Amino acid sequence: MIKRRGWHALLAGLLLLAGCAELMRNERAEEAKQRWGGVRAKVKLQLAQKSFDKGVIEDALKECNEAMRLDPGLTEAYLLAVRIRLERGEIGQAEATLESVRAIGPVTAEMSYLSGMIAERHGQSEQALGYYEEAYQVAPRELDYALTYAESLIAFDRYEDALVVLESRRADYEQEVAVHTLMAEAYWLSGKKIEAAECYRLAVNLAKENPTLLEEAGLAFLEAGWEDEAVEVLTSASRRRPTTQPSSLSPGEVSYGARGALAIALMRNAKPRQAVQVLERIVKERPEQPGLWMLTAEAYLRAGDVHRAGVSAQTALELAPDNEEARLLIAYHALEMDRPREAIKAAEELLEKNPNDLEARAILAQSLERDPATASKAMEHYRHILSVAPTHRWARLQLERLGPQAKADRLD
């Protein structure tokens, strides 16, 4: 019996050992399966990131979901999923995914950054700024965080604070165009035009083939008074941007893309005839823009072609009947072409809207002088100019020229 019980104990021990070995094999198999799942998850994550970078959003989302399924603890996959959801405009799902990743581990700079993006989509600008600041404070050397934080500061008119952030990163990212252009924007908005131009100069040296940057730099150079450099970069921009490609510059009264800004630079650089050549091509392509016709009229006027200046101004007025600058130029054109009645009519129309329009009143006075019967009325208008601007030397000289009564008025 003893031997039998001993045999049973031995058998039980052997069975126990076999069970433990099987359990260990199962555990090792599960660990291996998890490790392999983790490896596959990271591969899927890399594929998702590549698809996202290429703009293939649907593939990126599919691969990202697969990565999260293979490794539920892979926080990077969740964070990429948040970016993808935001790209798709799925703000609620992006927010839910971000909440899920918060439960996995501690808050990171990327989490704060994405929280800022979500807050911004909800229109919560102040909260977004706070999140962007958190991301920047955690990872100040990460360029995206620094740029986004600086952009948010600029949006809140905190230009000096933005410049402090960007200046601290400038030495680390001397070859990053975005740093120099954002600094240029902050300087520009704070009224420091020279500093803005200097930043644009650095940016242009790094990206000489970018027509948008060249256009922006050209305008900054114009504002800084760097006409030669403005002509150079704007000429380069106009060559690089096809006429069918829209400019980054807003089509307002001052600039019409690279070529319009180039024309302004040429005029400021005492090259009005070259400006005329540039503008003549532009108005043929965009004849519906009154501002372009006025710019062309100015170029003609500076080039000494009064007749064509008047024709351009008339075209501008037909396109924009309330354009007072065009009406003023038409009045001047009529005066120079010895058509005083037309000049008087145009000037009087301007003075009905603004009695203190000194340029219109000066044209009216000069037009009245052409007829001896109305010369005395011209003196009244010169006196009116002096009543508004007592130091207006030209009006004083005109009065003195017209007669002794004007000299008596001066003594009074």
CATH architecture tag of the domain at 174-269: Alpha Horseshoe
- Gyration radius, to the nearest Å? 37 Å
- Multimerization state: single chain
CATH class of the domain at 174-269: Mainly Alpha
Report the β-strand fraction as a percent range.
Answer: under 5%
- The N- to C-terminal Cα distance equals 148 Å
Number of E-type strands: 0
Please state the overall shape, judged from the principal axes of the Cα atoms. elongated
How would you describe this structure to a colleague?
78% of the residues lie in helices and 0% in strands. Among the domains are: 174-269, Serine Threonine Protein Phosphatase 5, Tetratricopeptide repeat, CATH 1.25.40.10; 271-321, Serine Threonine Protein Phosphatase 5, Tetratricopeptide repeat (Alpha Horseshoe); 335-412, Serine Threonine Protein Phosphatase 5, Tetratricopeptide repeat (Alpha Horseshoe), CATH 1.25.40. It has 22 helices and no strands. With 412 residues, the protein is mostly helical.
